[in-house]
C-alpha cells in the first residue's frame, strides 16, 4: 500500500468517525426524550427484555460471526451509556435511589451499650475499647450472630464485628449476617494483630509443652510455633479464651497465643512477644447500629446486590461507578444459598450518600440489580 493510499484511507476513517459521533449524539438526544417520557410516566430506566430484543435485531443485520459479536458488544456499551445518561436526567429531577438514611454530625455515644463477640481480652474487645473508650458499657456474647441479634432487638446500641483481615481476607460469615439482619454500618476500626505467647506468672519458656489459641492465630504464628517441634497445638474458639483457659487450668506447661492486652487482663506472663510472622497484619472491624444514620463527613459507602451468572452482568453493574467517577475500594462475592451459580456482591465505594454522583450510581444499581441494599455510610 502506498503512502498516498494510506493517507486517503485515514481521511475516509476520519469522515466515518465524524458520522458515527454525529449519529451517537442524535441517539443520545433521543434517549433523553425517552428519559423525559419515563420521568413523566414513572417508568424504570432499565428494560432488560427490550435490550435483549435490540441486541438480537442488530446482530441479525450482519452475517459475519466476528461482526455479530462485535456489534453485540458495541450496542451493549451504547445502551449502558444511555442508561447512565437517563439516570443522570432522573437525578436532576430528584429521582434517586431509595435511601432512608439520616445524616448526623456525630454518632450518639452517650448512655450507650456495646456488644462484641468473644470474651474480655479478645481482639473484638480491644476494638470496642479503642473506638468507644475504656469506660464504655460493653458486654460480650458467644457468637457473631448473637451480637447482631442484640442490636436488632435494641438490647445494645452498637455491635463490633470483624469483617476483614489483611492477610486472611474476608470474614465471610459476617458478610452473610449483614444480609440476614437489618443493622447498618456506621463506623469502622482497625486493630493491628500482635500475638504474644502467654503463660502463668511462674512459668518459663522451657516449661511449655502445650499451646492453645484460635486456629487463625495458630496459623499466623506458625513459623514460631513450628520451630518448637515438641509443642502440641490445640484450637479454641478465640484468642482470649485460650488465655482464660491457661489461667483456669493453672498448669505451667500450658501457654496461650493471644494479645498482650489479654495477658494483662488474665494476669499472665509474656513468655515471647510478637510471635506472628506478619507484622503488618491488621483486622478491620465494623461498628453496627440498628438506626440508618451516617456522619455528615462519612467517606465510604458499603452496598450489596445480587446478579445472575451471565456474561457481562458484573461489568455492566460496575459501569454505574465508572460513568459517575466513583472509586471502588473493595469487592467481595458470596454464593446465594439455594440458587446455584448466582452471587451476591459486597462493594465498598468512596463517597457520601449526600453526593450527587453516589446517588446517581446507586440509582442505576437499584434498577438493574436484584435486592440492592445500602449497608452503611461511614
Your description of this structure?
The chain is of the alpha/beta class and 378 residues long. It contains 12 helices and 17 strands. The chain has helices spanning 3-40, 48-59, 65-92, 123-132, 144-152, 172-180, 215-220, 222-226, 239-249, 260-265, 313-322, 356-368; strands at 102-104, 113-117, 137-141, 158-165, 169-170, 184-192, 196-199, 210-213, 232-235, 254-258, 269-272, 282-289, 293-295, 300-307, 328-335, 343-350, 370-377. The strands form 4 sheets. Strands 2, 3, 4, 5, 6 and 12 form a 6-stranded mixed beta sheet that branches. A hairpin with a 3-residue loop joins β4 (158-165) and β5 (169-170). α1 (3-40) crosses α3 (65-92), α2 packs antiparallel against α3 and α3 (65-92) crosses α12 (356-368). The longest helix has 38 residues, at 3-40. It is elongated. The N and C termini lie far apart (61 Å).
Notable traits:
378 residues; 5-stranded mixed beta sheet; 12 helices; 17 strands
Mass-distribution shape: elongated
Radius of gyration: 28 Å
Note poorly predicted spans. Answer: none
What helical percentage do the residues reach? 40-55%
Hey, roughly how much beta strand do the residues contain? 25-35%
Number of strands: 17
Largest sheet: 6 strands, mixed
Structural class: alpha/beta
Order of H and E elements: HHHEEHEHEEHEEEHHEHEHEEEEHEEHE
Looking at how many chains there are and whether they match, the oligomeric state comes to single chain
Q: What is the first-to-last residue Cα distance?
A: 61 Å
The number of helical runs is 12
Mean pLDDT: 93
Amino acid at each position: 500500500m502506498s503512502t498516498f493510499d494510506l493517507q486517503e484511507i485515514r481521511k475516509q476513517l476520519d469522515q466515518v468517525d465524524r458520522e458515527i459521533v454525529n449519529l451517537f449524539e442524535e441517539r443520545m438526544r433521543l434517549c433523553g426524550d425517552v428519559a423525559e417520557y419515563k420521568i413523566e410516566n414513572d417508568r424504570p430506566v432499565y428494560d432488560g427484555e427490550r435490550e435483549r430484543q435490540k441486541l438480537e435485531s442488530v446482530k441479525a443485520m450482519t452475517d459475519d460471526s466476528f461482526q455479530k459479536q462485535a456489534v453485540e458488544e458495541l450496542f451493549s456499551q451504547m445502551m449502558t451509556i444511555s442508561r447512565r445518561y437517563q439516570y443522570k436526567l432522573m437525578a436532576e429531577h430528584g429521582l434517586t435511589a431509595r435511601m432512608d438514611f439520616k445524616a448526623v454530625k456525630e454518632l450518639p455515644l452517650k448512655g450507650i451499650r456495646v456488644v462484641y463477640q468473644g470474651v474480655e481480652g479478645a481482639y473484638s474487645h480491644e476494638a470496642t475499647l479503642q473506638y468507644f473508650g475504656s469506660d464504655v458499657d460493653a458486654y460480650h456474647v458467644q457468637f457473631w450472630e448473637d451480637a447482631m441479634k442484640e442490636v436488632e432487638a435494641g438490647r445494645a446500641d452498637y455491635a463490633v464485628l470483624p469483617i476483614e483481615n489483611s492477610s486472611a481476607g474476608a470474614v465471610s460469615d459476617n458478610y452473610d449476617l449483614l444480609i440476614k439482619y437489618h443493622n447498618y454500618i456506621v463506623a469502622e476500626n482497625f486493630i493491628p494483630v500482635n500475638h504474644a505467647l502467654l503463660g502463668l506468672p511462674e512459668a518459663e519458656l522451657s516449661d511449655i509443652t502445650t499451646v492453645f489459641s484460635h486456629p487463625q492465630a495458630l496459623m499466623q504464628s506458625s513459623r514460631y510455633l513450628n520451630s518448637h517441634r515438641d509443642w502440641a497445638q490445640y484450637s479454641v474458639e478465640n484468642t482470649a479464651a485460650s488465655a482464660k483457659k491457661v489461667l483456669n487450668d493453672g498448669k505451667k506447661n500450658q501457654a496461650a497465643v493471644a494479645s498482650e492486652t489479654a495477658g494483662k487482663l488474665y494476669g499472665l506472663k509474656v513468655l515471647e512477644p510478637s510471635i506472628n510472622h506478619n507484622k503488618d497484619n491488621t483486622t478491620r472491624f465494623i461498628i453496627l447500629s440498628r438506626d440508618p444514620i451516617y456522619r455528615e463527613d462519612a467517606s465510604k459507602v458499603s452496598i450489596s446486590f445480587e446478579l445472575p451468572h451471565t456474561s457481562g452482568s458484573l461489568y455492566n453493574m460496575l459501569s454505574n461507578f465508572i460513568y459517575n467517577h466513583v472509586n471502588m475500594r473493595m469487592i467481595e462475592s458470596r454464593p446465594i444459598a439455594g440458587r446455584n451459580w448466582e452471587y451476591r456482591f459486597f462493594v465498598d465505594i468512596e463517597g457520601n450518600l449526600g453526593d450527587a454522583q453516589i446517588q446517581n450510581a446507586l440509582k442505576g444499581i437499584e434498577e438493574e440489580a436484584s435486592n440492592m441494599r445500602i449497608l452503611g455510610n461511614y
